[in-house]
Specification:
membrane; mainly alpha; 492 residues; single chain; 0% strand
């Protein structure tokens, strides 16, 4: 098959513009930045909406569960945050291996490999879902060991068993999304996600409140939402909307799975470490001696708000991953590097705006989440830590997206272990417990972990030899493409 670069953007003569005597260097760079920004927002805009809509599925379920009773609400929160979050985070991480492989293959013009990669990922993620299932089955005892009350652990255990079908929906959904994302088909994903959210809101009202199915209704509607997401995206692909990239089911999907597993596991560890880091931070807050309940409530509110805001840099993470992988696969290292710079500056600017909004409304925004004056005062007290977290989170996901696009997952996994667990958790425990700084000490430790990781990733990213990375990307595409060759490439 012809390996000439096949990209979704027309060639633009940036080198000619930069070298033209009629155009000043500053104007040429500005023009190039505007072009890159246009490409970036074409991907990032729908990606942000996708992240918000799919995050909204969990938020809607928790909102309707709040109309039941306090135990059910806590059970859903624990089920989604701890149990479902483990499966969601690990499978999403494993699926992100496709961001590297599909993105670089698309940039190199190896379209036929995209469908094979997706099918391989389906196989691996579904097997992983089977292996993770016991965590859902024994969620009750696990939560009890983590210090939750017997009542909450028991109800959350039932809820976790009911949402096991959702775990397997993740196994199909994440590879499909990376497959479409690598081809810049993000707008259709946004529309599908929006439709699923609207349907989910209606079904949640119907099943949880109108029919009175309670927690079982909440689990059913969440399962339906994620499987509907999978089915609608599959219909789009099977209808012929991805010519060349999807050529049907193939036995080649079962070939060379061991190498694919290595990259998938490295991707999962890289992305899961951050989620587990934040989860352990919340557990540390819950074990404080004084005002633990008050501080957990305040922390939950701040992290909930940060959870909505971080969907913006997550959208940029997806966009820069596509841009970097496509450009490296196409052999354009300068374009990949320039895209990194533009994306970091754009996301950082938006992060600063959110930070200023939090700081200026620190005594007002808590009203949106609670009516308890003590909780409101505690949220206002730690709002400065939230503002700093938002700034760091505006850059960190983008750098992670660069790492995924370039295929650095294994390296970043080691960086995350050192920064999050050696620096972050250690300092959080020492400041929170040893020096009795409470929630401020624990959150300060979390920030130190984020800062350490961001500094190291920034150094790695901006000292990278992008010419070498482009060469490695093309070698990777060639190696994986050869591994998929067979005397007869029969479809199933």
């Amino acid at each position: 098959m012809d390996s000439a670069p096949l990209v979704s953007w027309p060639e633009e003569e940036d080198d000619y513009v930069l070298g033209s005597r009629d155009v000043s260097p500053s104007k040429a760079v500005f023009t190039k930045a505007c072009r890159e920004s246009r490409k970036l927002w074409y991907l990032a805009g729908p990606s942000i909406l996708i992240a918000v809509f799919q995050f909204g599925l969990f938020a809607v379920t928790q909102t309707f569960s709040g109309h039941l009773n306090a135990v059910d609400l806590a059970a859903v929160a624990m089920g989604n945050l701890v149990i479902s979050g483990i499966g969601y985070g690990f499978l999403m991480g494993m699926g992100s291996a496709l961001e590297t492989l599909c993105g670089q293959a698309f940039g190199a013009g190896q379209l036929h490999m995209l469908g094979i990669y997706m099918q391989r990922s389906w196989i691996i993620l579904c097997i992983t879902a089977v292996l993770i299932t016991p965590v859902f089955v024994f969620a009750g005892p696990i939560l009890r060991l983590l210090g939750q009350t017997a009542a909450v652990s028991q109800v959350a255990g039932k809820f976790s068993i009911w949402i096991i079908p959702q775990l397997f929906a993740y196994g199909f959904n994440f590879p499909i999304q990376k497959f479409l994302q690598s081809q810049s088909k993000v707008l259709v994903m946004a529309w599908i996600s929006a439709a699923c959210l609207v349907i989910h809101i209606f079904l949640s009202w119907l099943c949880v409140l109108k029919l009175g199915w309670g927690l079982a209704g909440a689990a059913i509607t969440l399962n339906v939402a994620f499987w509907l997401l999978v089915i609608m995206q599959l219909i789009y692909i099977l209808a012929g909307s991805c010519p060349g990239a999807w050529t049907g089911f193939s036995w080649l999907a079962f070939k060379d799975l061991s190498s694919f597993i290595k990259l998938s596991v490295a991707s999962a560890i890289m992305l899961c470490l951050e989620y587990w880091f934040v989860m352990i931070i919340i557990l540390l807050v819950g074990h404080l001696r004084y005002n633990a309940e008050l501080e957990v409530d305040a922390t939950a509110i701040c992290l909930n708000l940060d959870g909505w805001i971080i969907q913006v840099p997550i959208g940029f993470m997806a966009a820069v991953s596509v841009r970097v992988s496509n450009e490296l696969g196409a052999g354009r290292p300068k374009a990949a590097k320039f895209s990194v710079i533009v994306t970091v500056l754009t996301s950082l600017t938006i992060g600063i705006c959110f930070m200023l909004l939090i700081v200026t409304t620190r005594k007002i925004f808590p009203v949106l989440f609670t009516s308890d004056p003590r909780v409101m005062a505690e949220v206002s007290k730690i709002s400065s830590f939230l503002a700093l977290t938002i700034i760091l989170n505006s850059v960190q996901p983008v750098l992670s997206g660069v790492a995924v696009g370039a295929g650095w997952q294994a390296i970043v996994s080691y960086i995350n272990i050192g920064c999050y667990f050696l620096v972050g958790l250690t300092s959080a425990a020492v400041m929170g417990y040893k020096f009795n700084l409470g929630i401020m000490g624990i959150w300060g430790g979390m920030l130190l972990g984020f800062v350490a990781q961001m500094i190291i990733l920034s150094i790695v990213t901006f000292r990278t030899d992008w010419n070498k990375e482009a060469s490695l990307a093309q070698q990777r595409v060639s190696t994986w493409e050869k591994s998929a060759r067979a005397p007869t490439e029969e479809t199933i």
